[in-house]
Design a protein that fits this description.
Its EC number is 2.4.2.22. It comes from Corynebacterium provencense. Keywords: Glycosyltransferase, Transferase. Pfam families: Pribosyltran. There is one protein chain. This protein has 4 helices and 8 strands, in the order βαβαββαβαβββ. Helix 1 (about 10-25) packs across helix 2 (about 40-50). The longest helix is centred in the first third of the chain and has 16 residues, at about 10-25. It has helices spanning about 10-25, 40-50, 85, 100-110; strands at about 5, 30-35, 55-65, 70-75, 90-100, 115-125, 135-140, 145. Strand 3 (about 55-65) and strand 4 form a beta hairpin. The relative contact order is 0.18. The protein has about 170 residues and is α/β, with parallel strands linked by helices. Helices cover about 25% and strands about 35% of the residues. Strands 4-3-2-5-6-7 form a 6-stranded mixed beta sheet, with helices on both faces. The chain has a two-stranded parallel sheet with strand order 1-8. The chain has a single domain, classed as Rossmann fold.
């Protein structure tokens, strides 16, 4: 992997959401935005505000365990939305990046049995993704520094990252 990085600032994030939301509303009006936690939380919430969609929900999927390190397959963590909550809805699945695409694929499969239609929206898409999102702000194959995850984990004063107070 190249040392070159894609840097997303909060200001650029605002521009990305406005442009992505416009592309979506010109084509699709979802009943619900389903944000994939953690990376998709901010995207789903921001799109909800930008598009006037108040029905925003969260699904928690674990896949990345570290920088460039993943589980073999993504795993849905509880609590998951009840399938009846999605029944008959048009759903927009929101995430930060379609990297491998496996997380988006898992969530699409989860929705497939109950929703009327699901589409996907991401800030970034990588060329290796097995899912080609319906709405993408930018394509890149660089490592992405998001403003909400590019700094070290904050710990209580005097403790190392990941440390616990006694």
């Amino acid at each position: 992997m190249s040392d070159e990085r894609e840097i997303l600032t909060y200001a650029l994030f605002g521009d990305a959401i406005k442009e992505l939301a416009q592309e979506i509303v010109d084509d699709y009006r979802p009943d619900l935005i389903l944000s994939i936690a953690r990376g998709g939380l901010l995207i789903g919430g921001a799109l909800g505000y930008a598009m006037g969609v108040k029905n925003v929900s969260v699904i928690n999927v674990e896949f990345y365990t570290g920088i460039g390190e993943t589980l073999d397959q993504p795993v849905m963590l509880p609590p998951t939305p009840e399938a009846v909550d999605l029944s008959g809805m048009k759903v927009l699945i929101a995430d930060d990046v379609a990297d491998s695409g496996k997380t988006l694929e898992l969530v699409q499969q989860f929705c497939a049995e109950t929703v009327t239609e699901s589409r996907t929206a991401v800030i970034y898409e990588k060329s290796r993704s097995i899912i080609k999102p319906d709405y993408v702000w930018k394509k890149t194959d660089r490592w992405i520094d998001f403003p909400w995850s590019s700094f070290p984990v904050i710990t209580p004063s005097g403790l190392p990252a990941g440390g616990e107070a006694s």
